[in-house]
Amino acid sequence: MAYSAEISRTKPTLFVFVIDQSGSMADGLPDQPSRRKADAVADAINRLLQNLVIRCAKEEGVRDYFSVGVIGYGNRVGPAFAGSLEGRDIVPISDVGNMPARVEERTKKSDDGAGGILEQKVKMPIWFDPIADGGTPMCNALSQAQLLVQRWLGQHPDCFPPVVIHITDGESTDGDATSVMKSLTAQHSSDGNVLLFNIHVSSDSSSAAIAFPDSISALPNEYAKLLFEGASPLTYNMRTIANSQHGMNLGEGARGYVFNGDMVLVVQALDIGTRPSNLR
Amino acid sequence: MRPYVSVFSHQKAGNSAAECEDANWPVVSTDEHLPLRIAAADGATDAVFSGLWARILVNSWGRKHLQFEDFATSISRKARVWRRLIKNRRLPWYVEEKAQSGSFAALVAVELHATGIWKAIACGDSCLFQIRDRKLIASFPISESRDFSNSPVLLSTSNAEQFRSEIRFDSGRWEPGDHLYLMTDALACWFLAQCEGGSVPWELMTEIALSQRIGFADWIADLREQNQIRNDDCTLVSVTLE
Question: Distances from the Cα of A269 to the Cαs of A109, B73, B193, in angstroms?
């Protein structure tokens, strides 16, 4: 059965995040106009990297169940880790855990259980800084992701298939990304094809979000249809997590595509895409 | 009646023996007296210090610090021991944060009495099996291989309310000649699948438990090689009542 390979230190898998850093990412979020989309996406990626490190943490250190690549695209296209990981394209999760660019202190607000708000200082490691500058060279960025995945599969032919999560708010400025998405998802390990998520960050408060649709019928434009067609069908385990932990009701044809998603949906999609349940 | 208890454990492939997060009571194979307490526990892979938590649970059971009555409350007391043991360690940020979510383990624990009664308690997917006259006569708390999942409710160090309603009790009678086995989930799942297929897997286990001819680690490695068993820590506690 596909997508059932164990994920272990001897059989790690790869997550690649492809992040739109074009000028339009400086726009505010529809529901929080004072917060730039670039800042919100950077927070979501940093939080996800933190969660991946914690998921692989054991008392003796971080176990290398995963490696991670982060590719940014805007004014330039390339590896987007900051600090001592700058320039590295595929990084074992133990190095991610031990080498954040810096650790910031944030205030976390939570219900104190007595009608008040509890403010708590929490540490937030930062690996990825927000950037919003230039065009949207999506084809170039996805081609770089394809090369990373190809290299990984050459070294790990039997791994749980790599997962590529692409976050964008706009249309490609360097051509039609259809063929590069096809080439990316045509690559495979012995356990299945590479999985691609296309997450479209909301720019428009008047349109409803669409999460993991199973057909193009509800999608409003050609560009949304292109990203839907390029995205992979969700695996059984991913649908199970979406349905049981995020209150969704996804059937077999659901694809890893989000249209006009707010940050809650972006964070949910990141969680669903990076939670294969066969860690050993 | 001098029950003979043999214990075996083998870590998942790719891990060192020190990384095994299963635990058992007694700790070594031994001739025992009745009443007798035995236990097997399986610390969760996706938590920190879960091997420590599994060891605290089986040791507490063996030393009678855990009782059937008010079991969940006594588990909470043992969770304080777990927290105390990790409290003063210097931990990197990711271990410190993960430890705040607590640790988790499955436990199956049994008490055998000279009166011929056994009583068992379990939370999670570690199992007890009883064999009499070449038949499986008790399977607790899981009785079908399809009921093993990746996300059982486990005993937690953080909040007894998460597992209180998932604690299972059972009891039965034992007779001379019976064999009782405790197994952590991967082995228990394989065992039930074998039974469902009409095999008698306990014959091999008796052979392993009572003779040195077949090594437990080699046997588990063979099962993994043949894809018959999930790559997970495996523990077997075998009681021969003869």
Answer: 23, 38, 36
Mean pLDDT to the nearest integer, A206-220: 88
Chain B residues within an 8 Å CB radius of A62: 94
**Mean of per-residue pLDDT scores for chain A:** 91
DSSP secondary structure code for residue A24 in this structure: G
Distance CA A220, CA A206 (A): 13
The helix (run of H) or strand (run of E) holding residue B211 is none
Compute φ and ψ for B227, nearest 5 degrees. 55, 30
**Closest residue on chain A to B14 (Cα):** A10
The residue assigned the tokens 């839907």 is A228
Task: Confirm whether pTM is higher than 0.95.
Answer: no
Other CB atoms within 10 A of residue A40 CB = 21
d(CA A155, CA A111): 47
- Report how far apart, in Å, the C-alpha atoms of A114 and of each of A107, A110, B101, B158 are: 19, 11, 22, 20
| Cα separation, B167 vs A89, whole angstroms | 47
In this complex, do B150 and A61 lie within 8 Å of one another by their Cβ atoms?
no
Chain A contacts in chain B segment 30-59 (CB below 8 A): 45-46, 48-49, 52
Tokens of B70: 């008010």
pLDDT of residue A276: 64
| Collapsed DSSP state (helix, strand, coil) of residue B104 | strand
B110, B200, B228 from B143: Cα distances, Å: 17, 15, 18
| Residue A186 Rama label (left phi>0; alpha psi -120 to 50; beta) | alpha
> Are A197 and A165 within 8 A, CB to CB?
yes
List, for residues B32-58, the tens digit of each pLDDT value. Answer: 889 999 999 999 988 999 999 999 999
Residue A205: DSSP 8-state: T
Residue A280's pLDDT band (boundaries 50, 70, 90)?
Answer: low
Predicted local distance difference test score (pLDDT) of residue A264: 79
The answer to whether B3 and B20 have CB atoms below 8 angstroms apart is no
SS (H, E, C) B102-122: CCEEEEEEEEECCCCEEEEEE
Confidence band of A256 (pLDDT split at 50, 70, 90): very high
Cβ <8 Å between B93 and A125:
yes
| Min distance A6 CA to chain B CA atoms (Å) | 8
